[in-house]
Amino acid sequence: MAIKNIALKTKSPDAPQHAKSGDGMGLYLKRIFALMFGAVAVTALAAYVTMVTPLWTFLMTATGFSALYYILLFGGLALAIWAQVRAFSFRPAVGAGLLVLYSVLTGVVMTPLLIAVLAVNPISILSAFVIAAVMFACMALFGYKTVKDLSFLGIFLFMGMIGLILIGLASFIWPAMLGGTFGTIVCFIGVLVFALFTAYDMQNLKRAYAVLGDDTQKNQMAVLGALHLYISFIAMFQYLLNLLNRN
Q1: Structural domain contains residue 3
Q2: CA–CA separation, 65 and 110 (whole Å)
Q3: pTM over 0.85
Q4: Which residues contact 63 (CB under 8 A, 6 or more apart)?
Q5: 139 within 8 A of 196, measured Cβ to Cβ
Q6: DSSP state of 146
Q7: Dihedral of CA 208/103/187/133: which sign?
Q8: Contact, 69 vs 63, CB < 8 A?
Q9: What is the pLDDT of residues 107-137, one digit of tens each?
Q10: CA-angle at 143, arms to 137 and 148, nearest 5°
Q11: Quick one: which of 24, 73, 95, 133 could link to 223 by a disulfide (CB 3.0–4.6 Å)?
Q12: pLDDT tens across 30-48, in order?
């Protein structure tokens, strides 16, 4: 939402943008995607290290997830929210460091899901990643190129995300609720919401560039944008992975 607030300061989606695009815009977008895909790589490495060492045993008990798992899960969620709220108070290097920390926590928390999938359908991990990457690229390109104002999606996407979070939290108490048709529908909605979030955030990042001040603000926005896009990509990957392993 912080990206949207800055983007709304532009008087026109296109006119100011052409005046300040070019090499500056290119470097700005390269910085965003370098940070975002770097975070994805850190997540993959953190998940791999957790799986191949005894660390994963601390995340699970004989009856389910351990207290440490929940601490890391909710700690990561709190960190992501706090980092977005305080994005323009941090130096860019600090913001990038928080993004790396959040990426590590996400990789660790994803480990139980990856272990379960590796036991029954390991190829689905690669399939989900490839599909998520293709969807992400298409939606990011659409958000960057489209002349249609996507701001109307904001409230619906935010409500959808909150609903998915609440369903996810409820599933820890009632795991069976995500079984059957309802679970499949939730996964499809999750993929759709975060695919649209990718286009929505991409358009807002493009517009925000026109009203950013010095290089420090541009770098701060690059970190914030990378966090938003990273969350959308990882969420799409997880929902797709669940879809491919519904049985």
Answers
A1: no
A2: 12
A3: yes
A4: none
A5: yes
A6: -
A7: positive
A8: no
A9: 999 999 999 999 999 999 999 999 999 999 9
A10: 150
A11: 95
A12: 999 999 999 999 999 999 9
